[in-house]
Amino acid sequence: QAFFYLLLCVPRGSSCPPSCQCTERAGAKAVLCSSRHLEEIPKDIPKDAVFLKLDANSITRIPSNAFRHLSHLEELDLSRNAIEKIDRAAFKGVAAGLRTLDLSSNRIRSIPKEALLALNAKLRLANNPWHCECALQEVLWEARLDPDSVQDITCHTAPREEYVGKPLLQVLDAGVNFCSVRQRTTDVAMFITMFGWFAMVIVYVICYVRHNREDTCKHVDYLKSLPSTQGHAE
């Protein structure tokens, strides 16, 4: 009975995942799940967690609302995992208070800009096999990147071979604009589509005119073949 009452006295959300260690840092709860062979984010992280370390695991994806219940979270370390996919709403619910987000040393090639641009946190995105494109460029321009790691955001793949292996910041400083490239591609596609429709209209008009002319010619020939009024009178 005494044990039962003890459980009732434990604050809600203060339990600790069995694969993690929970400690106090200056009165703030730290949840340490480093190097625990985790393949996904634990579901039972305490709601009052302020520091969360999930580094050096085998996590491959950050699903939507993965941290939504962690309204007190300030620092999140997801470095040195195998993350390949990040959903658009992955960090929904923690955007306001999060100060640091470490996604370095993963397998991230691209990321929805909506997932990061709502954050005020300082981002670490280094050492990922990035595909340099417009979305990544917008993240670099608008997000708060850690200045110590921004040079390590390197183009693993890119629209042009000459950009591969170079820091994205260096490529952009050289005047490259991946977003304008995409816009030009879109404009060309629209031009081709409009030209195709215009060509179809022209062909239709030509066929219509030709068909009507043939009908007119047939009608004239028919009229010519009829006996004239003068012939009947004679």
Structural class: alpha/beta
Uncertain spans: 1-13, 182-189
Instruction: Please report the number of helical segments.
Output: 6
CATH class of the largest domain reads Alpha Beta
Percentage of helical residues? Answer: 25-40%
In the residues, how many domains can be counted?
2
Question: Might you state the CATH topology name of the largest domain?
Answer: Leucine-rich repeat, LRR (right-handed beta-alpha superhelix)
The neighbouring-strand order within the major sheet is 1-2-3-5-7-8
Could you tell me the radius of gyration in angstroms? 33 Å
Tell me, what's the shape? elongated
Kindly report the name of the CATH homologous superfamily of the largest domain: Ribonuclease Inhibitor
Order of helices and strands: HEEEEEEEHEEHEHHH
CATH architecture of the largest domain: Alpha-Beta Horseshoe
Q: Write down how many β-strands occur, each being a DSSP E stretch of 2 or more residues.
A: 10
Mean pLDDT: 82
Describe the main β-sheet briefly. Answer: 6 strands, mixed
InterPro entries: Leu-rich_rpt (IPR001611), Leu-rich_rpt_typical-subtyp (IPR003591), LRR_dom_sf (IPR032675), LRR_TM_domain-containing (IPR050541), LRRNT (IPR000372)
Signal peptide: 1-15
Main location: membrane
Transmembrane segments: 188-209
Descriptors:
6 helices, disordered N terminus, alpha/beta, 234 residues, single chain, two-stranded parallel sheet, six-stranded mixed sheet, Leucine-rich repeat, LRR (right-handed beta-alpha superhelix), 14% strand, elongated
